[in-house]
Amino acid sequence: MSGLSSNIILDEWFNKIVPKPINNHPGYDMKYVSAYIVNYCYGTDLKKIIGIEWEYDTLSVVKPGQSLVAWAVNVRIRLQKLLANQRFSVYYRHCLFAGFGNGKMVNSDYHQPRINKSNMAIWFDCWKLVKITDIKPKKTYFSGWRRYGYEIKSEDLMKYHWNNECSKAKTPDGSARLIQKAYRNYRKRPVLLAKQVWEAVRNDNTPREKKFLSMPSRDTRCTVNLDIWYSIDGLYRPFNIPLDQFYDYISYSKHKRCQLSDRLAIARNKIQCNYIMSSAPNFEPAYISPAKQEMISLTSYQLSNCKSDTGGIFISSQYAKQPKGTMLRLRDGRVITVV
Questions:
Q1: Which of 99, 161, 87 is nearest to 128 (CA)?
Q2: Is the Cβ–Cβ distance between 123 and 130 less than 8 Å?
Q3: Which of 59, 137, 231, 240 is the most exposed place for a label (fewest CB within 10 A)?
Q4: Which helix (H) or strand (E) holds 37?
């Protein structure tokens, strides 16, 4: 926001020219503002500033019996018009302070309405009601005078809200708070199915030598665990191992993808079945006849939630009366696996 800014300066020599203000709200004491403009802001139209202050003061008054929420809703549109027309206030720089009484002229000095005891204000960025806390002057070095003094800026009144309550990052502390809040919300969200599946695959007790972690070079043929290999250019080849058990770099990569896809499918179906069964209180385990190697028909609910993309069906051993690893073929040719 642009416009005239009148910071409060407390200095022994400065306050002989510009009188000490009556409170710690920059821009509230118009006698202080007038003296500051006359001595340090040449060419500024004081009457125009007072006229703008009167418009804001009219909106700041909370009527007797009116709630703060009703007051905020009632003045919002007119307040937005003032800001859109760039009629900026000296006192209401960042928010509209709640007040009571009326502004008036006394001996050519304009007196603004008194501050409401609730110390509430409407912040211009989010249009929320915020509480303005009391602040103390901050010791500041004035290089022009080459001495220390005390100063209060209009944004100092908003520092507590910006650091602890504001939903927009206005200060470094406020930015850190928003990042921490976002991270806590991220930690509280439910774990995605993809992450559950990947964690299950990482801990499915598959031996390291069967995970295809290494890759053969272009001129090499090897077995799954890379313990037996030979070079195409070389003369030696282990004839005791069939050729279909050797892989080149292309078939090795394909086999690796297929193996990982199967492991992911098994882990995913196991997690989905556990979730479905825990949320279905009336679920009854399906019985697979070991003698006839056929399956008594599952319900449509069970069947639709236990299929996998690999063409087979996986059922948790908790819900099938068969040991883990049992693989049986259905009448339609599909294979059902108990995991």
A1: 161
A2: yes
A3: 240
A4: helix 30-40
Q: Does the global pTM surpass 0.90?
A: no
For the packed helices 46-60 and 30-40, what is the interaxial angle rounded to 10 degrees? 160
CA 139 to chain centroid: 36
Whether the CB-CB separation of 337 and 315 falls below 8 Å is answered with: yes
Q: Helices (H) and strands (E) in the chain — how many of each?
A: 9, 17
pLDDT tens sequence across 254-285: 777 777 788 788 888 877 777 665 555 554 54
At 171 the pLDDT is: 82
* CA separation for the pair 169, 153 (Å, rounded): 19
Of 5, 91, 86, 3, the C-alpha closest to 40 is 5
What stretch of H or E contains 33? helix 30-40
pLDDT digit string (tens) for 219-254? 666 665 555 555 555 555 565 566 666 667 677 777
Residue 31 CA to residue 35 CA, distance in Å, equals 6
Tell me how far apart the alpha carbons of residues 265 and 307 are, in angstroms, rounded to a whole number.
10
Looking at per-residue confidence, does 167 or 97 come out higher? 97
Q: List pLDDT tens digits, range 75-105.
A: 999 999 999 998 999 999 889 999 988 888 8
Residue pair 57/112 in contact (Cβ under 8 Å)? The answer is yes
- The alpha carbons of the chain give a radius of gyration, in whole angstroms, of 38
Question: How far apart, in whole angstroms, are the C-alpha atoms of residue 53 and residue 205?
Answer: 75
Helix (H) or strand (E) segment spanning residue 129: strand 129-131
Q: Identify the residue whose tokens are 């908790």.
A: 318
Residue 210 CA to residue 95 CA, distance in Å, equals 66
d(CA 324, CA 71): 69
Residues 6+ apart with CB under 8 A from 67: none
Other CB atoms within 10 A of residue 15 CB? 15
